[in-house]
Design a protein that fits this description.
The complex is a heterodimer of chains A (449) and B (531). Chain A has 449 residues and is of the alpha+beta class. Helices cover 21% and strands 38% of the residues of chain A. Chain A folds into 3 domains: 150 residues, PmbA/TldD fold, CATH 3.30.2290.10; 126 residues, no CATH class; 92 residues, no CATH class. Chain A contains 10 helices and 25 strands. In chain B, the strands form 5 sheets. In chain B, strands 8, 9, 16, 17, 18, 19, 20, 21, 22 and 25 form a 10-stranded mixed beta sheet that branches. In chain B, strands 1, 2, 3, 4, 5, 6 and 7 form a 7-stranded mixed beta sheet that branches. In chain B, strands 12-11-10-15 form a 4-stranded antiparallel beta sheet. Classes of the chains: A alpha+beta (449), B alpha+beta (531).
Chain lengths: 449, 531
Amino acid sequence: MLFSEKDAKALTDKILSYVTASDAIASVGSDKLSHLRFANNNFLTSGTRTARTANVTVWIDSKRGSASTNDTDDESLKAMVAQAEKIARTAPIDREYVPTLGKQTYKPVNGYVEATANLSLTDRARSISEILGECEKNKVIGAGFHSARSQAGGSATKNGNFDYDRSTNVSLSVTTRTPEGTSSGYFLRSHYDIGKLDTKRIARESIRKTIEGANARTIEPGTYTVILEPQAVADLLGNFSFTFNARNAEEGRSVYSAPGGKTRVGEKIFDNKFTIYSDPWNAEVPGSQSANGGIPADRLVLVRNGVLENLVYNRFWAKQKGKEPTPGPVNTIMEPNGPATSLEEMIKSTDRGILVSRFWYIRGTDPRTASSTGLTRDGVWFVENGKIAYPLKNFRFNQSVTQMLGPGNVLMIGKPERVGGSEGGGATASLLPALKLKAFNFTSQSEAV
Amino acid sequence: MSFSRRDFIKTAAIALGATSLPSWVYDAHATTGAYLDVNKNNLADAALATAKKLGATYADIRINRYRLEAVNTRERQVLNVSSGQNFGFGVRVLVKGTWGFAASPIVTADEVQRVTAEAVEIAKANSAFQRKRIELVPTPKVVTSWKSSFQKDPFDVPAEDKVAALLRINEAALAVKGVNFVNSSMAWVNEQKFLATSDGSRIEQYIIRGNPSFTVTAVDRSSGDFQSVNTLREGQAIGYEYMSNHDWAGEATTAAEHAVMKLKAKAVAPGKYDLVLHPSHLFLTIHESVGHPTELDRALLWEANYAGTSFLTPEKTGKLQFGSKIVNFVADRTQPLGLASVAYDDEAVPGQQWHLVKDGTFVDWQTTRDTAKLVGRDKSYGCLHADSWGSVPFPRMPNVSLEPAKENVSQDDLIAGVDNGILIYGRGSYSIDQQRYNFQFGGQTFWEIRNGKVGGMLRDVAYQSRTTDFWGACDALGGRSTYEVPGSFNDGKGEPGQSNAVSHGCPSARFRQINVLNTASSPNAGQMEDH
């Protein structure tokens, strides 16, 4: 059972009543996860899990200690507080201590739908069975994962703040393969409202990619114009908002660092065709009502017209630097500054390029240039003379994100849609468009399907 | 015989006297709340009886408690000291050949019955549409308890001692001129696992793991350049003695000197090089290129939607040339210090040791009771694992280790045979495709090898290769004296995602003519040959 606002308030108040330390923050969380995994055109594992946590962080004379438990009876909560205070008494001074927040006023976010939290087991089983039926009909082998999660929790400070949030998320991903293992497709979408999750589209797109991806050819790796579908953009940029750390930049260890302890805020680092921002009240990708240690979240522009507009200051670093803490990010939204271009138009305007469905296993290689490596997966096509010419085998890439989004390299931008990074399985979602980029670096080939 | 923790404490205290009790009994004494009030046997009886009554042909219940202590510092300050515990149970049922699972943190008789019925309900809802029934190979009934090997329980060590140990590491690093930042941390995990199966097994296990770590960063503010070096040590199944049996502060000094040196190091010229790989680096290459492709669930397409499948398939068993003749990989759930070592897996199959690659040939798989049946095996190798009471147990990697040379070969001996090569230490950036063919690995420090001798430091090194080409290019292995057991504390797989800890023992090893790229230079510097 999820904590109601009343439950969360009562529990956090109870935890704080046990605290003898001069300052404290207590938080409680609850969640319910219901999942179904299928593979080889068969149901594999399926289950449900309820969980709850309680945490407390205390400061005694600016010395900090934390403890957690998942028992919420009085005795366990008292023991948790005692443990945190025991740690704090022997800890060194917390030099980054900033007093906990007093009462804040939040503007609520609506990302919770009851039907998602209480989905019907039979409806889900039937829906997945229909997907398996489509796979069988199309002579492909289907695997996938359906997951519905609801979360609710609250936190309270000794200085009088209370913050309660709840949310739901349902995601479905489907991978299909030819029986010979010569082609594969993938599609993932999520929503907080189960009524808006188009399960048929997800299966259809995955199967289409597998069928159209058969007989893939090999071309030399190198630098190509690319068209990235929203999924591929999400795999690269799904958490992009969360990379604009002011402290790292000012400490000289970020792509946004400038020599002499300065930052690149105000510099035109990116192409001027898009804006990147965070917005807690976006109807498609609602964020949380609080950000950065509990301050009320607000709309935050990070990149506008190619200029790095903001870096993100937490409460401690903001105090050090005489700035206000940043009211975000809570999500990642990338929008074109002008009219959006459809995927079809992007293809039509391309003489020679590569269309990428998805990236996989992306890992940073050089933080100085925000470079990473990874591979294409589940659908790559060669585009020639304005048309999809033929499917390609997979590539490894080595690419700097800032170069990729740099001035002049972004040719076209699609209409943003809700999509989550595939390595996170759709647990979080961003609002991201398809992109056509002038140059993208593929460095080797992979025969993986 | 099985027992509840409280019963055991009473019995043991009378029979042995308090001074003879292991430290985990003291810990249980100190625990408050629901944990001590639980009679696991009675709850297991209720779950298994309910599951049977409702139509399950197999059922198991895991009643587990997890403790975690973590300390994080940077420079001369402590970021956090935290301590947590998590207790709950999960019930798994097989109904009409379909799995169902449910879990709860409320460990009471009523909740166990409710959750067991929910697991059956889920299985039944799905079984109506199931295409092919899941079947299990048998495993013998066992009733036992086991504790992992450690000398000093980290949960008995005061937080201030842990903080002091990390701040000593930081001081050592900051004493090196040119070093600007150091982060250090330690995490200690204790799993207290109880398993009861409808086959009659009842198993209690108590496991300790530790993962100290640090990163040193040097910044050249005039040029805007910065370089970091991490510890070369990894997590192990070990107690707090890990903090005294390794010279952490000494290693931090060396890492700091290397971070400063890296700012001025020579950029690697892309091309083909012979590589000598130290165990602190090689273990992760083994993990990605050997550990994952030999997971049978991947070959059976069970992981197709997430981590991926495998270039290995059942018909290649015993036939495929995986590497050179000197390459032998052993899967081992019993390896000392191994993060994946257990006495029994999460479906009561004993920990075992077996070859995955023998004399260069791929010979066997990592199996569980439900995957073994599908390749005609009559027993499991015991690779089922869940990372929590709330997670569905599924196939996870045992320790997968590279056997050292039988002869006494040193790392210097390997280097002596290289005219133009690179010596690599530590785990860096790593990426591999979903069938485990094509990979790219970086490291922490890189050293030029010229004419059989180690020269200056290099930077921006990564190598790309193809699994069977790479292991085929392995022409020499270090002996037992070069062997270490590094491991990964967090290996992700599965849906919902789970994290596993696993080790990969290995000696230093030499690989001929591997493609090296410069990660900081022009984008196409690392082009590989077409395969």
